[in-house]
Amino acid sequence: MKMEDQLEMMSQFQEPRAKRKMMAIENMPESGPSTSGFPYDRAHLKYGLSKRVEVSLFRLPEYKISALRPPTPPQFYSEDESLSSSNSGLHDRQEDSSDSDYSSSKTPKAKANSLEHTPIIDSSVFAYTPQETLKTRPELPEEEIKADMVVLAKKKNLRWHRGQIVEVVIKEDGRLKYKVIFEEKGKSLVSGHHIAFETMPKLEQLYVGARVVVKCQDDTTLFRAGILAELPCRKNRLRFLVFLDNHKPIYVGLTLFHLVCRPLPEPVEDIQDEAHRSFMAQYLRDWPYPHLTQYKPGQTASVEFNDEYHKCKVELVDSSLIQVLFKFDQHKEWIHRGSIRLEHMPRFLELRRREADAGED
Length: 361
What we know:
- Strands 4, 5, 6, 7, 8, 9, 10, 11, 12 and 13 form a ten-stranded antiparallel β-sheet that branches. The protein has a four-stranded antiparallel β-sheet with strand order 15-16-17-18, with no helix packed on it. A two-stranded antiparallel sheet has the order 1-2.
- By secondary structure, the protein is of the alpha+beta class.
- The protein has helices at residues 3-26, 42-50, 62-68, 79-84, 130-133, 274-286, 345-360; strands spanning 31-33, 39-41, 121-122, 150-156, 159-170, 176-182, 187-190, 195-197, 211-215, 223-230, 240-244, 249-252, 257-259, 292-293, 300-305, 308-318, 321-326, 332-336.
- 22% of the residues lie in helices and 27% in strands.
- Strand 9 and strand 10 form a beta hairpin.
- It folds into two domains: 79-124 and 289-360, SH3 type barrels (Roll), CATH 2.30.30.140; 132-286, SH3 type barrels (Roll).
- It is globular and about 75 Å long.
- Helix 1 (3-26) packs antiparallel against helix 2.
C-alpha cells in the first residue's frame, strides 16, 4: 500500500474521533473543576484539540549521555583538597601522610568516625613553586629613611602606631636612631627594626620570614608586629599568613601589612616571648615543610589557654588554621594547625630537635 493511501486511511479513522471530542467540549460549561484537581477553561480545551504537539522519545547512546553530564566541581577551597594536594607537586611520590618526614608509625592514627583522636602530623611540602616558598630576603636596594617620613613605629609593649620621623640621630657607636612623634600623642627614639614603612609593600620584596607590621581590624590606629609565614598560593586561597608576636595567626591581604624598615639579621630575635620565638625559629627552619596536624570539623582537640589545656571542638578548617570552640566558656579562637598551643605539638617539636641534634653528632 502506498504511503498516501495509508495517511488517508489514518485521517478517516481519526476524524470522527476528533469530532466527538469537540462536541463533548461544546456541551461542557464555560469552566469548572477537572479530575486532576485543577480548573479547566473550555476555550483552552478547544485550542488544545486544534493544536497538538507530538514528541518522540528515544535513548541516547551511553557515550553521548556521559558527554552531556556536567563535570564534578573541584573542591578548590576544601580542607580535604588542601591536605591531599600537598603531594601533587611531588608527582604523587607517596600517598596520604606517608610522605611526612615524621612517620605515621610514630603517630597513632585516629579510629574511624572517632571524635577523640590523636591527629596525624603532616610535614609535606606546602607549595609548588619557588615564588610560593621563598624564605630568603631578596637582594634589593634598601629604601631610604629620612626626616619627615610617615612611618609606623613601636610605642610600647607590642603596640605600634602611626607617626612621623622628625629627626635622624647618629649615636657615638655609629648606630642610627629615629625620633618619632606619634599621631596619638607621645614621642619615642627607636631603632630601624622598630619602624615600618607606611606604604604598601611590593610583591617582589616579600618572603617567608619577613618582619612585618599588621593593621588591627578592630582598631585602625593600632598595629602589631609579626613574621610572614606563608606567601599566596593555591592552598591558602592567595592570602598571606602572619604570626603576630603574641602567637596569634591571621590571614591577611597585601593592603593590611607593612614591611619593617631595617629588620634584624635574625628577625625572630625581635620576638619577646621565648616560647613563640623558639616556635618561629623552628617553623622557618622547616619551611616549606611545616608540621601541620590534620583535623576535621567536629573532632576534638586539647588546646592551651591561660597555661592550662582545655578540651575544644574543631568548628572550621581554613587552610593552615582551625577555629576551635573552648567547651568550658564557649569562646572561639583561630589556631595554627602546628601551634605549640596544641597539646601534642611541644612534645613532637622537642623530639624533632633531639633527632636533629643527634644527626649533627
